[in-house]
Structure to design on (279 residues):
């Protein structure tokens, strides 16, 4: 057999052998079938028939466009990470939450005020991106150390209690509502809002900010996490104003300008900080 014939035979053999390498395992595209495709379809919220056809390709392209990815309709490593699918390689140096860390994922979801199903999928990723954007963090949808810290969630699985996360979610639904002294809805005062939010999580606390400060467990400034109540002397001496922490650095409170999310520290609120309580 001549050298030309050997080369031709090798080429033919290489074409005939199915591709089973790492690159093929990492990418899914039109015509692919199997369980990996079903996982993508479930993450996208479409029928999981295991066939990567035109409907799946369109759903992938729509997701990529929403997530700021390259819009090619191919599920490669970046798209897998964005979908929260296990097995997607994590970028070097990244220490974000992975789907296997369900406890932390649920804590993140509670802190964000979304459904806590423990799945770090596209809805959670988008909520994380929105949160990062609002805090001036790197917007990548990955719950790394900076994002976890801003959310008041520990990456080790320790996190706000389910009641604390539920209370934060309840308080978020009132953002933008007007202020009213003594208000308990639809307009609110500070302690009326916190009492109501905690009640939605099954926790009963007193009505006034002063009485709320006198119950619960004291929390140091560094240990504040989502669901804790944070007190200020903004309306007079002592714990005259209260908000519910959405993380270690921010709270939701009914201010005289309405219900809004604001910093715990800073030139104004930082100088009026009194303390924090956990219930």
């Amino acid at each position: 057999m001549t050298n030309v014939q050997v080369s031709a035979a090798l080429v033919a053999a290489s074409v005939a052998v199915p591709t089973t390498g790492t690159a093929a395992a990492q990418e899914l595209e039109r015509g692919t079938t199997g369980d990996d495709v079903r996982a993508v379809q479930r993450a996208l919220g479409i029928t999981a028939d295991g066939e990567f056809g035109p409907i799946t390709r369109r759903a992938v392209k729509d997701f990529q466009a929403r997530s700021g990815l390259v819009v090619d309709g191919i599920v490669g490593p970046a798209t897998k990470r964005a979908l929260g699918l296990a097995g997607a390689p994590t970028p070097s140096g990244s220490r974000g939450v992975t789907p296997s860390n369900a406890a932390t994922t649920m804590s993140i979801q509670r802190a964000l005020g979304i459904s806590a199903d423990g799945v770090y999928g596209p809805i959670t990723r988008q909520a994380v991106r929105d949160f990062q954007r609002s805090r001036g963090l790197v917007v990548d949808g990955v719950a790394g150390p900076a994002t976890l810290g801003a959310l008041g969630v520990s990456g080790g699985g320790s996190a706000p209690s389910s009641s604390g996360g539920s209370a934060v979610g309840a308080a978020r639904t009132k953002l933008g509502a007007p202020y009213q002294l003594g208000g308990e809805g639809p307009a609110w005062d500070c302690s009326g809002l916190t009492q109501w939010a905690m009640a939605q999580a099954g926790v009963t606390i007193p009505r006034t900010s002063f009485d709320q400060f006198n119950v619960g467990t004291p929390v140091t400034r560094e240990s504040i996490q989502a669901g804790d109540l944070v007190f200020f002397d903004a309306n007079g001496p002592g714990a005259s104003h209260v908000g519910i922490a959405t993380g270690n650095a921010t709270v939701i409170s009914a201010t005289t300008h309405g219900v809004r999310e604001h910093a715990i520290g800073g030139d104004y609120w930082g100088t009026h900080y009194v303390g924090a309580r956990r219930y």
Notes: Residues 1-25, 88-95, 156-160 have pLDDT under 50 and may be disordered.
